[in-house]
Amino acid sequence: MKKLKSDSPIPLYYQLREIIRDKIMNEDWGYGTEIPSELKLCDEFNLCRATVKQAMDGLVNEGLIVRKKGKGSFVVYQKITENFLLEPAFSKKSGEAGLNDYSTVIFSDFTETDRRMQKVLELEENGEVYQIERLHYIDGKPVLLDTHYINPKWAGNISKEDIREIAVYKYIENTYEKSFTNYKIGVQAIMLDQYEKEQLDFPEIPTGMVVECLSFIGKEPVVFNRRTYRGDRCDLCLEFIAVNQKMEVVNSEISIEERNGKRH
């Protein structure tokens, strides 16, 4: 592990916490790994017990480790990264991480359009849109409220499919033998409203990350997708590359984090 800098203005407990935190976040110490005991850390870094305890307390409060009486301290942080330009597909990655995931269907049917859907999907007033609303869980905990609004012209017989598992974009491309060509995407941090709190199991910190994506086939808007992630279990990562003196997104990710404990 890295060494502490005794001549640094940064407190020693904070330096130690960051060293251990880096090991966890970089997955050098994966889920379930036992952290060296406080006594071992005292010996390794030549620190007093109070300083080490302060560092460990910070990691517990952040939800990265948990103390088990009579056994020690263990990593409880897990992360699944998804490209939010694509549809959520947790199954493979959550399985690799030893997690169980599933989805439940809240609503799936034609519904009357509101003004916003009329505008973004270029639908007639008093028309209909096909709405699919699902809740995605990882290890029994809701992490994502996922809603699709589909232009009825492109809905096909989607109501006859297994709505829990269907990949909306792939279904449309396969049914109509056409590919999506471009997307308009917006990302914002929000305070969850009452409905979102109820669906996402009343997170203690009622914040969320919303990703909205309007998808086109040619010039025609086909699907509007709104995803609301629990703010205490996700991080946003954007990667850019310079192309002809312009910045283009090459990777856009939401990291879903499983933590036991509180995040501060």
From TrEMBL:
Molecular function terms from GO: DNA binding; DNA-binding transcription factor activity
Descriptive protein name: HTH gntR-type domain-containing protein
The entry's keywords: DNA-binding, Transcription, Transcription regulation
A Pfam family recorded for this sequence: GntR
SUPFAM superfamilies for the chain: Chorismate lyase-like (SSF64288), Winged helix' DNA-binding domain (SSF46785)
Keyword Lipid biosynthesis found: no
HTH gntR-type domain location: 10-78
Gene3D superfamilies linked: Chorismate lyase-like, Winged helix-like DNA-binding domain superfamily/Winged helix DNA-binding domain
BP GO terms, sorted: negative regulation of DNA-templated transcription
PROSITE patterns linked: HTH_GNTR (PS50949)
